[in-house]
């Protein structure tokens, strides 16, 4: 039976509302360009669990408050408290992984509606969704190599699955930023429009999901996931060890400090 329960976010940094058959989840940290705080990561899984059991919901749309950013990355002000120590890294990464896995494995369609900055964790949220649409002012980047941090296996796999290993390594190794048109050419986003036309473009998708057969769509999504499953020879533990080595390194400390001090980092490979 359809649920009559309202959607209530546990933090005001994440806004939610139900519009027809679409659940909107909006990251609301505009003073920091919607940088993802611990509370914001933590708000996503319970909202998705509620939506999974709500027959009213046929599509979940992620967006960012304001016109300057979808998500600009992690909330850097929390780095010292939440990501510096080994235990804190484990907690932070677990929260992010739970949220991103929840989006990626959600049985119903998901869509990212992107304006402005879509950096780091913002790209992770976007590529965890099924569909990405963007305004022409969107800017994309994955700055991990400038920070010395480890990038989780699931996020790398989502990126490689979406745009291929060559393009993924180009973006990741260089940490360069790309505009919306290059993102579309790479397959990172499906469609691009002028900023003022983004609401109309989004309405095309919300209308289609409202009218088309939900079981057919969910079946197609499930089969696509089966097609993309990894090989049984995959060594996930090695991936985890390599990532942990990045977070335990002097380079990670240097990358974080340089970012906060607004200077170029000097990495030593240690």
CATH superfamily: 2-enoyl-CoA Hydratase, Chain A, domain 1
Overall CATH architecture: Alpha-Beta Complex
The side-by-side strand order for the widest beta sheet comes to 1-2-3-5-7-10
* Number of beta-strand segments: 10
The largest β sheet comes out as: 6 strands, mixed
Bin the strand percentage. 15-25%
Which geometry do the CA atoms define? globular
Mean pLDDT: 92
Helix content: 40-55%
Radius of gyration equals: 18 Å
The helix-strand sequence is: EEHEEHHEEHEEHHHEHEHHHH
* CATH topology assignment: 2-enoyl-CoA Hydratase, Chain A, domain 1
The parts where pLDDT drops under 50 for at least 5 residues are none
Identify the notable features of this structure and list them briefly:
6-stranded mixed beta sheet; single chain; 4-stranded mixed beta sheet; 270 residues; 2-enoyl-CoA Hydratase, Chain A, domain 1; alpha/beta
What do you see in this structure?
This protein has 270 residues and is α/β, with parallel strands linked by helices. The protein has one domain: 2-enoyl-CoA Hydratase, Chain A, domain 1, CATH 3.90.226.10. Helix content is 48%, strand content 16%. It is built from 12 helices and 10 strands. The strands form 2 sheets. The chain has a 6-stranded mixed beta sheet with strand order 1-2-3-5-7-10, sandwiched between helices. Strands 4-6-8-9 form a 4-stranded mixed beta sheet. Helix 1 (38-52) links the parallel strand 2 and strand 3 (59-64). Helix 1 runs parallel beside helix 3 (86-105), helix 3 packs parallel to helix 4 (121-128) and helix 6 (153-163) crosses helix 7. The termini are far apart. The mean pLDDT is 92.
